[in-house]
Write a structure and sequence with these properties.
- The chain is of the alpha/beta class.
- The protein folds into two domains: 52 residues, Signal recognition particle alu RNA binding heterodimer, srp9/1 (2-Layer Sandwich), CATH 3.30.720; 66 residues, Signal recognition particle alu RNA binding heterodimer, srp9/1.
- 16% of the residues lie in helices and 31% in strands.
- The strands form two sheets. Strands 1-4-3-2 form a four-stranded mixed β-sheet, covered by helices on one side.
- The chain is globular and about 50 Å long.
- The N and C termini lie far apart (39 Å).
Length: 143
């Protein structure tokens, strides 16, 4: 079966959280993003070019689609990582430290040594709700 190509796909990840406003500020600081919506129930964060990079939605707000669940009703993001490539990796690490982000790994080089792989640097963090967040420098940056 042939697969039709319709054009670019743009990821628009959405996190369900207890506190949209505090989480928005945390990600704005970490990523250098800005609010494009604001509010206690829903938020859109965009990069410097106005591209959507992350949505936040309060767990128990139904809007037109029903509730996204209840906080603590299931593991948060089990098996899912929010992965962001950042041009200012060193500054992003400094911002993560200033936020007191829980660091699971890094900063590290991927691969640890030698050629191959993305040849970039990564830091693996947890956001205030426990979601896994990875910041990576551009591929080839650590060649």
């Amino acid at each position: 079966m042939a697969i039709a190509t319709l054009g670019p796909v743009r990821p628009q990840p959405l996190l369900a959280v207890d506190d949209v406003e505090a989480t928005s500020l945390w990600f704005q600081h970490l990523l250098g993003a800005r609010s494009d919506h604001g509010g206690a129930d829903y938020e859109r964060l965009v990069d410097g070019d106005g591209r959507l990079i992350l949505q936040l939605h309060r767990w128990d707000v139904e809007h037109h689609h029903g509730s996204l669940g209840t906080s603590g009703s299931s593991p948060l993001g089990h098996g899912v990582l929010l992965w962001f490539e950042v041009d200012d990796f060193d500054a992003a690490v400094t911002r993560a430290e200033a936020l007191g982000a829980e660091v699971d790994l890094g900063p590290i080089r991927n691969p640890p040594e030698g050629p191959g792989g993305p040849a970039h640097r990564e830091i693996w963090l947890r956001d205030p709700h426990g979601y896994a967040v990875v910041l990576a420098s551009p591929d080839g940056e650590a060649a």
